[in-house]
Amino acid sequence: MYLGLDLGTSGLKAILTDETGALRGTREASYANPHPHTGWSEQDPADWIAACETVLDGLAAGHPSDMAALKGIGLSGHMHGATLLGADDAVLRPCILWNDTRAAEEAAALDAAPGLREATGNIVFPGFTAPKLLWVERHEPEIWEKVAKVLLPKDYLRLWLTGEHLSDLSDSAGTAWLDVGARAWSDRALEAGHMTRAQMPGLVEGSAEGGRLRDALRARWGVTGPVVVAGGGGDNAAAACGAGCFAEGQGFVSLGTSGVLLSAKGGYAPDPASAVHTFCHAVPDTWYQMGVILSATDSLNWLARQTGRGAAELAGMLPERAEGPGDLLFLPYLSGERTPHNDAALRGALIGLDVAHDPAALTQAVVEGVCFAIRDCLEALRGTGTELTSVLAMGGGARSRFWLEAMASTLDLPLQVPAGGEFGAALGAARLGIAAATGGSPAEIMTPPPVGETIAPRADLVPRYAAAWERYRALVPAIRAAQAD
């Protein structure tokens, strides 16, 4: 049996599979994501451990014979988080998360360092790990002086599971300390970020062994033999493993808390100026590119809070099928934006509000605004020479038929909807666990899911959504100017 653990922003998901990837059990546990100040987003790493104990205790109670046969664990997690540890591995402060923008000034300074983009293959975004450490150095010097190790969120979970300070290359690519082409820590980037190799974890490929489950935990969960813990992956790389995205042109659009348009790449071909991320994949000798927006379903969650209605209730107000863009435009820059703007200060807007607009109209505007932001990502990817030929639809937003039809017609690309079952980051993590424990070929283990339906772009809607997207993107300079005043 094999276990996939996906450490998300709002909760931990665990799935238990056999060697074919067939689901045997699943558990979830949630935790808080405090925002103590504007632009801040933090989490207590102790909550991740408590969630892991909850889900694995539950699987051990509900599936004792399967847990007894556990051979491998794979880890997936939200990227860029700065988990700061002292010499005794004690957590020094709450983890600063991926959607925290407090380090915008530090990110700009680091991005301007000579040779930094060339070393890492990426713009330094405020959400990346390296600028957060510079912020701590500047604002919390008493913490900075004690930092012995910096771990990404899933790798703090690994430390508890195995006792090892290790990370994989896909997750580490989002720190701004990694030479993404060489798949190794960059001395130039570490020096620019005032860090040392001694403060970095060791590196392994995501499909390779990254520690062994501690004996005390094996005994707690009734596991009879040794358990390999795979290197694992950042959440998007792990999701690509779950979706079987490895070949040039294969990709997915993910509508989760954030939004992602990802394309696998056969080689290393960065274009930092595009604000497209170029990262190592979770399997050897493979990379991927992606455009990222910071608020996808989180935009719908924001609207739910403002209207006093649940996100599911709002989604239920949408038409059964897309009928063309509404007359209200929404810019989903609630926490700034990454691709293509790289602007932590940019903020959202509703344009064209009318007294007649009701929650259904607001919901449609939010959904379409996210579609337009993903179209921005598509154009940025195309600007690097990347063309998507096969696109899976993933994430909570992909459960909305309206959202899928609007997205397909906005991108003018067919979207493939998997036929059900697990296929996201948790499955990708389990598959990495299988590869690490068995030595099997990732290509044979991590196959694409069967497609249940293909949502084609509608010829009658494509030009209308294209015109609406042109109006949408023309608003950004005006919004920036208004906010600057």
TrEMBL record:
Pfam families: FGGY_C (PF02782), FGGY_N (PF00370). InterPro entries: ATPase_NBD (IPR043129), Carb_kinase_FGGY (IPR000577), FGGY_C (IPR018485), FGGY_Carb_Kinase (IPR050406), FGGY_N (IPR018484), Xylulokinase (IPR006000). The keyword Nucleotide-binding applies. Substrate binds at M79, H80. It catalyses: D-xylulose + ATP = D-xylulose 5-phosphate + ADP + H(+). Residues 252-437 form the Carbohydrate kinase FGGY C-terminal domain. The record marks D6 as: Important for activity. Keywords: ATP-binding, Carbohydrate metabolism, Kinase, Nucleotide-binding, Transferase, Xylose metabolism. One of its GO terms (biological process) is xylulose catabolic process. Its EC number is 2.7.1.17. Residues 1-242 form the Carbohydrate kinase FGGY N-terminal domain. CDD domains: ASKHA_NBD_FGGY_EcXK-like. Catalyzes the phosphorylation of D-xylulose to D-xylulose 5-phosphate. Belongs to the FGGY kinase family. This is Xylulose kinase.
